[in-house]
């Protein structure tokens, strides 16, 4: 397996459950650690957790399952004819391994803006433990931070840095924050909450260049409109790119990800599988954990030789706590042509809920502040049944809608009412 | 004992324990005439309590009386004379050309000029005065003198025409004069009470307290109630005759038939003190209980029983009000009832006699002053040449006009026809209270000149005024009123009128002097030093008349307190009862069995009920509102007992006509239509519909019940038949609903918002504007339409209700495809404004949450949910039963469920321990609980 991240290791875990004896498994990981929960880097940055808290599988786990782990080794080439991979360690050590089946789980690479100054000291991405440690270190010594990109990762970085005492400005190219998960009112509500906690935002702002100070470290960020922001630390969180360099070199078909079939086999070479952020399934490369785990299950099933799993893509939902604010979004939450929207907006109370309906079915949802019913909406969304009968009650949550339906059906009204107490 | 002997314990300007100055005055609502001790501080009336020394109430007040100080708070008042330069009225809708503020001189000169001009061009009968039973006697007198002596027209009539004129005609036809022979004390002395066409439990609560006292003191006192509705009064009767509307005259004649047949008549009294009995007896033959039972809608046995109870009584007292009077044979109803007293001798002795209850505080004073088209001062009559000649001499003018004057309905007909060009309206609201509103409003719209002299600028009629003259209101003016038992009391000013408002008589006298100058007449005839001088002139005209009060003056009333007339010069005290010598006010001293009270050949209803208009619409009063609500409608707490206008049907009719309780229905006949929510009540007989008379276009999209009522009048009294109209009731089918609510900062702010909203109501198929709250004032508006209302209209209402601004304190809910758009404004932990468009189920409890300042926290999640009932733990919107302590129906029922009786309720919740207006209802609720086990056992 190439890549020791969450998608890959999840696949191994599933495979070990189904067919623990079927393969001799070798794992190459670029980072010098066991397997950890990348999602939890933010709490680490925020000081709410420490690194040991977020380790999923330590080295003992690999040993116990007879897995050969080459941590800190980056795979540099795949020889598909000889079915061998070649990896290099930090110290230049070369390791080669043969495979019957190869699993690519190379993840993604942060997108570094191609602007002057991107290579200055103090300009980093936010992807792994090393980045996190760099930010924690910077917060100790420096005052001003700029985070480029107001996606989930960027906001968490910004929040963590602010909690560590930095003066943080988020520079975002889009019209509102988290535009892949939130619509405008939801984003504004979240932004207002974050602003109340001291974060500053520059929306619709294009980074022009990064300027060094006297010590050679980054000191200012100049926007394309000429404005400047003090920046002792610049965190690039402007998106990720599927990490396909290795696959492309092996002449596997890539289109913004390694193109895979419904069994997660690459379309070029059925002995090679790809899961996670590096894979492109039906044109979609997923960046959220839930789809990756679904892929992992199907992939492990296939590797185990059962052949009955079939990945048909994921309906994604995001249920997150962005810096303490509950945020949920799923499906086609932007709506548009042919869609109808039911929207609740309570700015003073910090709650926003929008449901998008299409042809009497729930097509999308986005919520801020109160996401208790996110899982229910997500289920309705995936099941795709008609919600027309409970449309007027839908937005007020599962208990309410189902109790009202029960009341309408002649069941005990008092019981129905008790539910909304 | 003459109650006037009780004297005055509290002189004017006395001090109570709190060191605040209190003045004795009289309540300005119904004709009971309760004494009120009012306190003022800083130019505002701050508190009221019942005057323990006043013989009308001995310290008691009802819900309306005990909130007088709240109704007297500023809001909706006319403050300055305002003049409209040009009329621009389209159809019958209100004028939109604004009036501009002018000075009093300009206002009254303009009025005098316009009146003089019209009188010169078209004669004195081209102008008319339409005044009010709420005016003080002094106001009334000056108006009357202006019309008769200066203008020279009998075109002066009062809204008392809508209220008491059938009683006047009935008394005159039988007793020879408009003389209420009885007094309140008789209630305690009677052993049988017949209440007919009246609901004193609601409309005259303090009279009803006396009835309760009498029954408590003597359990043998029996109470018969005659009413088409099972009212609160009827609930407490020993015998309720739920008669068919309009059949009263048949009932009383059938009862008389029973008295005769069973020998329950007083032959000696008939022989010695009456005339016309033989003629009546001859006609009664066909009027047996069996004959009339079907028409009356009663079992014959009930009629017999009612007659026996009346006839066998030691002393029978009858009390009645609009149910008899507001009929196209109202005089016959009155006469037929009085005949029962004459035939059985239940008259002219303590505890016995006919006792008409008056609806207005000074209906009686208006009658004494003669300020009705058919009357002259001192109970004189226009059609009596001797009366006219005598009065001309007293007024020192050559002659009084002989041409009959126009009574209310005719007056507005003449205005519509152009025979009357200008009308001066004072202290009344004909664009709400007269029947057949479409015609009344058309008349006002096309008149040449309409003057409105009013305390309130926000009445329906105000929209039609070319000249609006601000009048002083209750607590701001001084004079006298006469209550139902002929008792004259002083009304006192405690605070100065707001703005430039003036006492009514001052305005009229000023106008009269200006008009006199223009007509080349003597202005000195209208020059009085003060209201006491006006009263003195009035009293002098009564000398020698049945209503002789020539011994009364403001000074006497100050010294000796309220007095009952007759009180001739030299008298030491008033007169509790009339005709104690059994000599009546007729030429021969005999009371008359009047032909007008014989069985009538004409239809019982003013118009037929048919397949297209299958319901008889009856109208009536609510407990906590009064008349057109220009006062009570401004007090949020007074909306608690009946929160909104509804039309009420018997449940059986609702199902049979394919209607549903709560749905909006269209009540219509060829005169107009009205859209209201439908309510069910078994107290309303099948085939009848009931609408309270209070609601008008100040709170609804249409002019209220009077959009539908008939302009048919009694030929003798000319009182309109406001009680019965044939109507159709069909689903209104107005699926688009919206509702707004807003917490007002003060009662005055609530009034301002109401005033702002009123002109918009007519733009909707259904609209209901109301208030809720006790300490807080919440303005509510509900509307319905066939289709979605224009966004600009919604935006305007949003702005008025402070739900429009796009700020963080406004919560929103939108389902555009379903047409649902809701807004809520929050302030801290409270909801302060609300708008529901497209779906309004939760409006009731949300409005209650605003009024009760409910914490928003448990509510927030459910604010916009389509929940007809609040989530558990939150109080539902409920009807207030006890207004004094703000106790709602739910709390009372809960307390009853825990085993409490009436005393328990009073101890636990304090309800029914102050004004007592809710006692009948509490007793009924206790009785209902008591009945439950019996039903279960059966």
From TrEMBL, chain A:
Single GO molecular function: oxidoreductase activity
Q: Which family does it belong to?
A: Belongs to the FAD-dependent oxidoreductase family.
Q: What is this protein called?
A: Nitrite reductase (NADH) large subunit
Cofactor dependence: FAD
Could you confirm whether the keyword DNA damage appears in this record? no
Residues of the FAD/NAD(P)-binding domain: 2-283
Residues in domain NADH-rubredoxin oxidoreductase C-terminal?
317-383
Q: Which UniProt keywords apply?
A: FAD, Flavoprotein
**The keyword Flavoprotein is assigned to this record:** yes
Q: Which organism is it from?
A: Azoarcus indigens
From TrEMBL, chain B:
Q: Name one GO cellular component term.
A: membrane
The organism's superkingdom is given as: Bacteria
| Xref: InterPro entries | Asp_de-COase-like_dom_sf, BFD-like_2Fe2S-bd_dom, BFD-like_2Fe2S-bd_dom_sf, CT_Nitrate-R-NapA-like, MoPterin_dinucl-bd_dom, Mopterin_OxRdtase, Mopterin_OxRdtase_4Fe-4S_dom, Mopterin_OxRdtase_prok_CS
**Record-linked CDD domains:** MopB_CT_Nitrate-R-NapA-like (cd02791), MopB_Nitrate-R-NapA-like (cd02754)
Tell me the ranges covered by the 4Fe-4S Mo/W bis-MGD-type domain, including all copies.
Answer: 20-76
Q: Where is this region: Disordered?
A: 1-21
Sorted keywords for this record are:
4Fe-4S, Iron, Iron-sulfur, Metal-binding, Molybdenum, Nitrate assimilation, Oxidoreductase
PROSITE patterns found in the cross-reference section? 4FE4S_MOW_BIS_MGD, MOLYBDOPTERIN_PROK_2
State the Pfam families in the record.
Fer2_BFD, Molybdop_Fe4S4, Molybdopterin, Molydop_binding
**One GO BP annotation of this record:** nitrate assimilation
Which prosthetic group or cofactor does it need?
[4Fe-4S] cluster; Mo-bis(molybdopterin guanine dinucleotide)
The record's annotation in PANTHER family points to:
NADPH-FE(3+) OXIDOREDUCTASE SUBUNIT ALPHA, RESPIRATORY NITRATE REDUCTASE
Q: Which family does it belong to?
A: Belongs to the prokaryotic molybdopterin-containing oxidoreductase family. NasA/NapA/NarB subfamily.
Name of this protein: Assimilatory nitrate reductase (NADH) alpha subunit apoprotein
Which organism's genome codes for this protein?
Azoarcus indigens
